[in-house]
Design goal:
about 1150 residues
């Protein structure tokens, strides 16, 4: 083979022995040593082993930290690609360096075989080629040949490649329930008795318990059935819907210390004389009770009409009594609460009673709340041995103050509770306390004559009502900071156990392989690097016998024939004081002569890569680009590629499969680059090149990045293009590690649902009069005044039909609806457009001249009488008397406000009248008074409603005013004000319960609005809003018609449980750009590299590389001086 070589005038091509060339193996110029590649040095292999051990330890530590802390950390968008790409990038870098270990093991193994003279046949030495084969095939061949260094090196490469795949699934984002401790909490209230007056406790404390027990309403925030506590929340900012906070707070709990009492004496007295005849119209039962520690003074207990008593009547109530015991000196010790049930007849009385001492305590307890609405998850009372939670009290507040407040609340609800239709055995003679006690789990009156039942019922009801008293009247605003716990679902970076365990096993194997490589490494088998043409030539120049057998060989067949039956060994000898390294063939007698070759001048030239390989290398990335773009567009349009319904090992498929595909792509491009590196020096020789750019260059011994810059700097564009494609190949594996991820998406699905009932607006509403209307009106008062949650199927001002959750149907598939991920705890949202009912007030402003004010005499100016003309069609006037607050009798001006829904009885009269303004002492002027009259209606309107699924709790409703349809003009006999708390006279003002609710509870008006005579529309808007909220609860009780044959409503389900496999736009674009660049580079390489006329055989074996040199001038004696084989190319 003839080649042209240009000398580089600026570089000495050869360095004679004895010159310091920087070779670390040249210990002394006169004693050159056999060569060890830097990558196979002991230090490097030890570093590899240490690195693998450190990585194994790091993965194990990360796994343990992840297990103990439920993840390594909460996902931060800014660091997403760090944990996604980082692990893969580390192992790709390691793969690049280990690749040099593999190359050197394959390159030097034939030389080692010759040096050790083990199986020195030509097929095991000079014809042996591990480099060209796929490394798996090379490992199989090396195993047969017992060349363990090659086996170890290839197995290490395969394990590192496996690690790059496994690393893509090492870290994954997963939803976990995370607990934080030591989180800052803030309580907005604290217990205090400042300003507490038991007589001013309104009826809400008792009505709340009635609403909870009778209508399944939740307790107000900050209370449970037995406790009251300051509401608190976490100072973590926005939190998920499932966030839970826990913290130690003060718990108020009341109790009763009861003894069963017996009746020592009873008498029947007269509470009221008859006005129409001689005798007593109302009888009173006077009792004297005694128990183990207390004997009471006589006290009045039950009262009832005498005629009723004569027939016999069951009664139950709570009373105050005082012990007559001389050893009890303080009022606190003497006072008892009497819980009694009686069957009272004219001639006999049966009484079961308890004498109880009220108690209460403030102790530390652990309260757990939902952070979004402060609803109670759990309450854990303090343990007895907890020194930090010893029972205390509220300064200035004793147990009797609590019980007195409770009695005040019961007195305020006496009439409202009697208007509630109750079961037949709960007669009006049963007090409000026992009516409420029996609402949730009714007892027959006879049951209360069992002392144990009486005590259980009484204690449970007392503790519930006392907690409401404490919550409403024994708390003041505060800002108390403390530490607690926080629990919420968070997206956390988790170390996956499957990947971690496989990676640890692979790393442990690599530690062992590094040690095995150190033991079996094929070092000190050549005098220098034989990878360059010049390096091999220096050795062949001392191996004359081998060179002579290769002279004239033209093809692969001749090459094998020329070297057949020979043994090839390498030896180091001294010739004339100069160490010489040579390859010596050994033949049996008679075989020294080379057999005649069968050279064919038309033999094909060697092609390093096939046309099919080249075609696949170009077509594969193009097909992958097309596939990536198609899947990305599908992912974008459909908010993902597929639903993920499990956390099982199926998740590894979208992590590992793409990584394996990219490894396959890498194999094809690496093959193109490998063939280009092999043939590049020979291409340069054919063109005519400098020594440094051809015979002294071996790109196989360089890292790919080094090879790229070296080729680019020397304008070897084909080689630099192939190197660039291989440089980009690891980027594929890095980018593909973040190609697919799971994301929570809001999936909109068309659904339908069947209602349980329809709404009708042709019913008059009688909140207080009908026995078939159980408790109508109570819920409205609690929603407004106690800020309790709306009952089901009501929200704000409207009511909607109740829905059958089990009938929810997916309209796309016409099957019962199922969430995408039934294992998810996330709540979905159902959006529906529904018909609704709401109340409406049609109001007119009153002229000033129809309002008349009459004051009492100037000697007693404490009240005003208001009279209102209601129009020509109304034959009566609306009359009201307003009394000045007792504490402000000496003031001149008194703001007032009243709203009446029973001003007139005639149909042609307005049904409702409102008056507000300022009354002046001793003045009959109506100039500072405004008024309005209203006629109530029921209105039909379509609303856009959202429900939480499952449960169908309404979260929002907005009315579409354009769909309003007037209903019939209907009158209400509602007495709704009885269920609102009585107004307080904290200011010099007189407001009825309705105006007080607008001012104090809903905050839709201010006292200054009344004093400054705000325009009537301002007051009307506030009035109508409150009226609508109250009457919605009334409509809820009387406007429903149950039916089994109703048309379904269509809507949309926002499925928040859906987890979708999403394709990353960043990773997609990186992959597409890299694949496109690699395909272009490969096309350029294929078009630029012409292999015809370059090499007749594969130069990766010793003989294959030596054959073209055998006939060349490089092996002439005057080219390489003695000892040149010990020198490097520098």
């Amino acid at each position: 083979m003839q080649t042209q070589q240009k000398e580089d005038p600026n570089k000495t091509p050869l360095i004679l022995p004895g010159r310091d060339n920087g070779d670390p193996n040249l210990e002394h110029p006169s004693h050159p040593q056999l060569w060890t590649p830097p990558i196979l040095h002991s230090t490097v292999l030890v570093a590899f082993a240490a690195l693998f051990a450190v990585l194994l330890a790091v993965i194990e530590v990360l796994f343990r930290v992840s297990n103990e802390n439920q993840g390594l950390g909460t996902s931060v968008p800014g660091y997403h690609y760090l944990w996604t790409y980082g692990p893969t990038a580390v192992f790709i870098l390691i793969a690049g360096f280990w690749g040099q270990v593999e190359y050197r093991a394959m390159q030097l193994m034939p030389w080692k075989a010759m040096l050790t003279r083990e199986k020195a046949q030509a097929s095991q030495t000079v014809l042996l080629d591990y480099i060209t084969d796929w490394n798996v095939v090379a490992m199989v061949r090396a195993t047969r040949n017992r060349h363990w260094a090659v086996c170890v090196a290839v197995l290490g490469s395969l394990l590192v490649a496996l690690l790059t795949v496994l690393s893509t699934g090492l870290l994954m984002l997963q939803s976990v329930v995370l607990d934080w401790t030591g989180v800052g909490m803030s309580a907005q209230k604290a217990f205090s008795g400042a300003g507490y007056q038991s007589g001013r406790v309104d009826g809400l404390a008792a009505l709340v318990v009635a609403g909870v027990r009778g209508f399944e309403m939740p307790y107000p925030v900050g209370t449970t059935g037995g406790y009251a506590f300051p509401v608190f929340n976490a100072s973590l900012g926005a939190a998920g819907s499932d966030a839970v906070v826990s913290g130690p707070v003060d718990l108020f709990s009341a109790d009763l210390d009861c003894e069963v009492a017996t009746v020592s004496n009873w008498t029947q007295g007269c509470a009221a004389e008859s006005l129409f005849s001689d005798g007593c119209s109302i009888s009173r039962l006077n009792l004297v009770l005694s128990s183990e520690s207390c004997s009471t003074h006589r006290f009045p207990s039950f009262e009832e009409y005498t005629d009723t008593v004569a027939r016999g009547i069951y009664m139950a109530d709570v009373f105050d009594a005082s012990c007559a015991n001389s050893d009890l000196t303080s009022e606190v010790d003497k006072t008892r609460l009497v819980f009694a049930a009686a069957h009272w007849t004219e001639n006999s009385t049966r009484v079961q009673s308890l004498l109880c001492k009220p108690t209460y305590s403030i102790s530390k307890g652990l309260v757990t709340l939902l952070n979004r609405n402060q609803s109670v998850v759990s309450v854990q009372a303090a343990l007895d041995d907890d020194q930090t939670s010893q029972n205390t009290g509220i300064p200035g507040i004793g147990p009797l103050d609590i019980s007195a407040g409770l009695q005040s609340s019961l007195a305020a609800v006496r009439y409202p509770m009697r208007t509630i239709a109750l079961p037949y055995y709960l007669d009006r003679n049963i007090s409000a306390f026992y009516q409420i006690a029996n609402m949730s789990s009714p007892h027959a009156m006879e049951d209360l004559f069992d002392a144990a039942v009486l005590e259980d019922v009484s204690r449970e009801t007392y503790t519930s009502m006392a907690a409401q008293v404490a919550s409403r009247y024994l708390m003041v605003s505060a800002d108390r900071q403390f530490e607690g716990e926080y629990s919420a679902t968070a997206k956390r970076v988790m170390v996956r156990e499957l990947s971690a365990r496989f990676m640890e096993a692979a790393l442990a194997a690599l530690v062992i392989l590094s040690a095995a490589m150190w033991a079996w490494r094929p070092v000190r088998s050549t005098p220098r690097d034989p990878g360059t043409i010049s390096g091999l030539a220096t050795i062949l120049s001392r191996s004359g016998s081998l060179s002579e057998r290769l002279v004239g060989v033209q093809n692969k067949g001749d090459l094998k024939a020329a070297l057949a039956r020979g043994l090839f060994v390498s030896q180091v000898s001294d010739k004339e004081g100069q160490r010489t390294f040579s390859i010596e063939p050994k033949y049996r007698a008679g075989e020294e002569t080379r057999p005649k070759g069968s050279s064919d001048p038309n033999s094909p030239w060697w092609k390093p890569i096939s046309k099919g390989w080249q075609f696949v290398s170009v077509a594969l990335p193009v097909l992958i680009i097309i596939g990536l773009e198609i899947t990305f567009q599908c992912s974008r349009r459909r908010e993902g590629l597929a639903d993920i319904t499990s956390n099982s090992y199926i998740r590894y498929t979208w992590v590992y499969v793409p990584a394996l595909v990219m490894i396959l792509v890498h194999i094809f491009f690496k093959g193109i680059h490998f063939s280009t590196m092999i043939i590049q020096p020979y291409l340069e020789l054919k063109r005519g090149a400098t020594t440094a750019g051809s015979i002294m260059e071996n790109h196989l011994s360089k890292l790919t990045m080094h090879s790229f810059w070296s080729a680019l700097s020397k304008r070897k564009f084909a080689l630099s293009a192939s190197a660039l494609s291989v440089i980009l190949a690891p980027a594929l594996r890095v980018a593909v590690s973040g190609l697919y991820s799971t994301e929570d998406v809001n999936d909109l699905r068309p659904v339908s649902i069947i209602p349980r009932d329809s709404l009708t607006s042709d019913q008059d509403i009688n909140i207080t009069g009908g026995k078939n209307i159980y408790g109508l009106g109570l819920t409205g008062g609690l929603v407004v005044a106690a800020n309790m949650s709306y009952p089901p199927w009501t929200y704000g001002e409207v009511i909607v039909p109740s829905l059958r959750e089990e009938s929810l149907t997916d309209r796309e598939d016409n099957v019962p609806y199922q969430p995408s991920n039934e294992r998810s705890d996330d709540l979905s949202v159902l959006r529906l457009t529904l018909p609704a009912l709401r109340a409406r007030l049609e109001c007119d402003t009153l002229a000033e001249d129809v309002i008349h004010v009459v004051t009492n005499s100037s000697d007693n100016p404490t009240s005003w009488h208001l009279s209102v003309d209601l129009g020509d069609k109304c034959s009566v006037r609306a009359n009201h008397t307003i009394n000045k607050p007792p504490g402000h009798r000496n003031t001149t001006d008194t703001p007032f406000g009243l709203f009446s829904d029973k001003m007139a009885a005639a149909w042609d009269c307005p049904w409702m009248t409102g008056l507000y303004g300022v009354l002046t002492t001793a003045s009959d002027s109506a100039s500072a008074i405004r008024g309005f009259t209203c006629q109530p209606h029921v209105q039909k309107v379509d609303v856009n409603a959202t429900f939480v699924y499952p449960g169908l709790e309404i979260t929002s409703i907005s009315a579409n005013e354009s769909t309003t349809r007037p209903g019939p003009r209907t009158g209400f006999s509602s007495n709704i004000k009885h269920f609102l708390p009585k107004p307080t006279d904290d200011q010099n003002a007189v407001f009825d319960t309705f105006f007080s609710a607008m001012l104090r509870d809903q905050h839709t008006l201010r006292v200054s609005d009344i004093e400054t005579l705000a325009p009537v529309p301002v007051v009307l808007n506030a009035t109508e809003h409150l009226y609508r909220v109250l009457m919605a609860q009334g409509l809820n009780g009387v406007s429903r018609n149950a039916s089994a044959d109703l048309a379904p409503y269509n809507g949309t389900m926002v499925d928040r449980t859906r987890v979708r496999l999403v394709q990353s736009v960043v990773s997609t674009r990186i992959l597409e750009a890299c694949l496109a660049a690699m395909a272009v580079c490969t096309v350029f390489v294929v078009c630029s590299v012409r292999t015809r006329g370059v090499l007749p055989v594969n130069p990766c074996s010793i003989a294959g590389a030596a054959m073209p040199l055998a006939d060349s001038d490089l092996l002439k004696e005057d080219v390489f001086p003695a000892g040149s084989e010990w020198c490097s190319d520098r």
